[in-house]
Design a protein that fits this description.
Oligomer: single chain
Radius of gyration: 24 Å
Strand content: 15-25%
Number of domains: 1
Helix content: 55-70%
Order of helices and strands: HEEHH
Strand order of the largest sheet: 1-2
Largest sheet: 2 strands, antiparallel
């Protein structure tokens, strides 16, 4: 019974860690509510003419799918802890009685 409790706690801990990591990555990169972006546009000003022009730079900005996927995966892991482990228990009992 202790291994089941340990397994349940492990899955729930992994789910919590995954959820915190997903939300942390999304927040750390800018909490963008659109899709993930791999570049960002930055406006620069020409010193001579004074005209602003866009310059694209490489950047990773996590989109809204990152925390959504982390939440969905964490929910699946927590849901897996509620699946009964009867098949394993009955197999183990029948093996010990033989």
């Amino acid at each position: 019974m202790k291994s089941t409790t340990r397994f349940t706690r492990g899955l729930r801990g992994a789910a919590l860690a995954l959820l915190v990591a997903g939300l942390g990555a999304w927040t750390a990169t800018g909490a963008h509510f659109g899709w993930t972006q791999t570049s960002a546009v930055q406006m620069q000003r020409d010193e001579i003419t004074g005209i602003d022009y866009p310059v694209r730079r490489a950047a990773f900005i996590a989109g809204v799918e990152v925390p959504l996927l982390a939440t969905l995966t964490a929910a699946v892991l927590v849901g897996a802890t509620f699946i009964p482990r009867r098949a394993f228990a009955t197999t183990r009992l029948s093996q010990s009685s033989q």
